[in-house]
Records
---
Amino acid sequence: MRVAGAATLISIPLKPSKTKPTRIMALNSSNKNKNMNPPTVAMASLSGKENEKRKLPILLFDIMDTIVRDPFYHDVPAFFGMSMKELIECKHPNAWIEFEMGMISEMELARKFFKDGRPFDLEGLKICMKKGYSYLDGVEELLHELKQNNYEMHAFTNYPIWYEIIEDKLKISTYLSWTFCSCVIGMFSKQCLKERGNLILIFIWKS
């Protein structure tokens, strides 16, 4: 498909996952922010005369359950002593989305995570998440090979400031740049790829 200017974006979903319907629904519900202007800094990293010298295609990776195991689905319900169904019923419908968008801080997330405002151990949750972050099998080897072959790679992900915890543990920036992260750019999905210049961008994600 065409994304503004002359940049061509190709989306390649990996094998569908049956464990992520809630997250996908949450992302789709956030399109109300799609008219926000993309940041100059992020756009500068994918524009200019230097495009002619770049190796194409440029690879954009979703992060959670594409590169990194997502503890939200695997570990967080157990942390709260609930099933996933119970957690979904108890949590505030918009709090996590707002956190991913950078609209609220982690302290505000703690105050409104549950509909009834019950307190919980925020630091314990962060520790739980950090323990659960790991490369998916074979992915780090793939990223290393792509890096060795001089492919330019960027994160293109909907995730809160806790991406820094992922980086601290897994050092993903060894292979790719955290260029497009919703908590920083304040928007989701392909809207931030309004681009100038001739580029072929391949977006790799797990549906």
---
Amino acid sequence: MMSWHFTAQTNKSLALFVLMFSFVDVSANQIDTLQEKSKVIHRIELDVVPSTILHTNAYLKGDNIEKRTMNHAFTTRLKYAFHPPATSQQAQMYKGVYQGIGVAYHNFNPQLGNPLSFFIFQGAKVKQLTNALSLNYEWNFGLTAGWHPYHETDNPENRVIGSKITAYLNANLYLKWQLSKQFDLNAGLSLSHFSNGNTTIPNGGLNIAGGRISLAYYIHRPTEESATLIPRPTFQRHITYDFMLYGAWRKKGLMLGDKAVALPKTYQVGGFSFTPLYHLNPWLNVGISLDGVYDSSANLYIEDYIVEAGQPANDFEHLAQPTFTKQIALGLSGRAEFVMPYFTIQAGIGRNIINAKGELNGWYQVLALKTNITNRLFLNIGYSLYNFQTPNHLMLGLGYHFQKKKR
């Protein structure tokens, strides 16, 4: 039974991995034919990220088999990226933008393991400070495999990592110093989060913070003098409408009496969003979303039962599923999107307003990564929180743009 569960979990994670990396395959084919007259710029980069673990729970603070605080974290990353041609409209609209794929090796305490991450990433220039120095940002998103996760007998104290495969999220703010036409030296801050998205329990998650130092090598990067710039294209404000269907799976924990219990069942989640979006400029969209959700783990309850004299109560055996109507809700949320080539990052805050009862009564937060498959269809990988702190569920979806305009 345990072997089957691990195989099923691994297959789900691999499916998510294939979906995620299809982003890059789609992206590489979307360069406009008019831009191919100028060469795409390629970049290879090696990062080292000495870090420290942020102590967010008792296990990391010393409630572990070694009885000591966990601090050690060191990451090495190897990345490939491509930039649009320097003479392209895309390069003029989105200064310094790049995107690509990478692999990372993480060195932690033995109880956590030394996992590998496979990820996509994107970054761009925030501000040019001098001719050779600029402030930049970068995000990474992927999967991390090879943890030493929670195990009821072998690693029972580990409430941080509950599965061998987790999501990997990373954000960087760094200074880029152009040493020459071919080389850059980069240094800055790096924050990382590892979580299984509530697909298994425990799901405490791991957060690390550190400094990033990297060396990047460029192929076909032109000098400022050799790059013939073209005017930035004009942008017309407009409204589009996005409709998205999503689904996911999740685990559930409950307090039964005075004891926290992880339920063995895997629960299904599904929903939709309909979002009119006002495009303020090439980088920012805002709107209001109508959100529907079905969560088969919502509002579980204990049936009334009789406990015989001298016998202990057993709430677990009397856990019941409510009717379908008590596990659906409709809400409204405000949405904002940060738009870049190939990828859009969406954030939202909302509240259920229809059938908002029990566990469906509260605020929810959404963070998602979107990428276009075609001019109309897009993929969505997102996550939802409940009341700004409680892990909720993944949002793996397919969406459609109405009145989509080409930029």
